[in-house]
Write a structure and sequence with these properties.
The protein is mostly beta strands and 78 residues long. It has no helices and 8 strands. It is found in: Membrane. It is a single-pass type I membrane protein.
Length: 78
């Protein structure tokens, strides 16, 4: 098993929806979430992590929805 972290930084307003998705479906099991916290410039940052089987890495994405985005963003693991 390996742990991956998704960092979301520099967003405003504070409300954000971020999740790990496997093949497009939200994964709650083995997901750990931090708190939304302020940055010095008035924006916010957030993180969430997940433990996965390294052989399934290509199936996972960090999914982010926020009012500051024109559309949701899905980021593949590196």
């Amino acid at each position: 098993m390996e742990t991956h972290v998704c960092h979301v930084d520099g967003f405003y307003p504070k409300e954000i929806d971020a999740s790990w998705r496997r093949d497009g479906e939200e994964q709650l099991q083995d997901t750990f979430r931090g708190s939304v916290a302020p940055n010095a410039d008035g924006t916010y940052h957030y993180w969430l992590s997940i433990r996965i089987d390294p052989q399934e890495r290509d199936r996972y994405r960090c999914h982010v929805e926020h009012d500051g985005l024109q559309e949701p963003v899905d980021v593949a693991m590196k």
